[in-house]
């Protein structure tokens, strides 16, 4: 069993890391994608590749850290306590961005990456400028959903922490 200070520290860390990471992911969708859409596709795709690269080194690790905090809280909760289930849901929710990214977003991400690597030829092969714009919008929507999944996991963690205080 964790001490009250350890429990509080894990709660603060898991909840804040989950919500901050979710906010950053959602903000990228609502601030970056419109900028991409306002520039030539070739330029936007080049910058999107850089965004993919930097995001892949930050967001999965933060989601894993938040999920780990919730998993430890679940492990240390009394076995028959509803807290255990609540923290398991929080851990699964925050880590849920991984399968969502791999199984739902990857086809769109890889298509955009491949088109970007081929430049103007890739844009022509893909079906033209409109097709690229459509894929960029799809990326923005899916990325916002991914952030929402992370926020829901952090929300479950917050709910568990608050219910534990009663």
Number of helices: 7
Strand content: under 5%
Q: In terms of quaternary structure, what is this?
A: single chain
Rg over C-alpha atoms, rounded to the nearest angstrom? 19 Å
Largest sheet: none
Q: What is the β-strand count?
A: 0
Explain how this protein is built:
The chain has 166 residues and is mainly α. Helices cover 89% and strands 0% of the residues. The protein has helices at 4-37, 41-56, 59-76, 82-95, 97-118, 120-126, 129-165. The longest helix is centred in the C-terminal third of the chain and has 37 residues, at 129-165. The model has no long low-confidence stretch (mean pLDDT 90).
Give the helices and strands, then pairings:
Layout: H1 4-37, H2 41-56, H3 59-76, H4 82-95, H5 97-118, H6 120-126, H7 129-165
Helix pairs in contact: 1-3, 1-7, 2-5, 3-4, 3-7, 4-7, 5-6, 5-7
Using brief descriptors, characterize the structure shown:
mainly alpha, 166 residues, 7 helices, elongated, 89% helix
């Amino acid at each position: 069993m964790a001490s009250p200070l350890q429990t509080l520290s894990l709660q603060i860390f898991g909840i804040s890391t989950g919500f901050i990471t979710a906010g950053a992911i959602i903000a990228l969708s609502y601030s970056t994608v419109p900028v991409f859409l306002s520039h030539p596709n070739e330029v936007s795709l080049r910058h999107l590749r850089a965004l993919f690269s930097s995001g892949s080194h930050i967001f999965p690790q933060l989601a894993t850290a938040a999920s780990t905090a919730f998993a430890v809280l679940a492990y240390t909760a009394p076995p028959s306590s509803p807290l255990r289930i609540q923290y398991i849901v929080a851990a699964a929710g925050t880590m849920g961005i991984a399968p969502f990214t791999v199984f739902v977003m990857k086809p769109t991400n890889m298509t955009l990456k491949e088109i970007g690597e081929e430049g103007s030829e890739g844009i022509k092969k893909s079906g033209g400028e409109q097709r690229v714009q459509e894929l960029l919008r799809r990326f923005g929507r899916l990325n916002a959903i991914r952030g929402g999944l992370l926020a829901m996991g952090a929300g479950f963690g917050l709910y568990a922490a608050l219910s534990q205080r009663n």
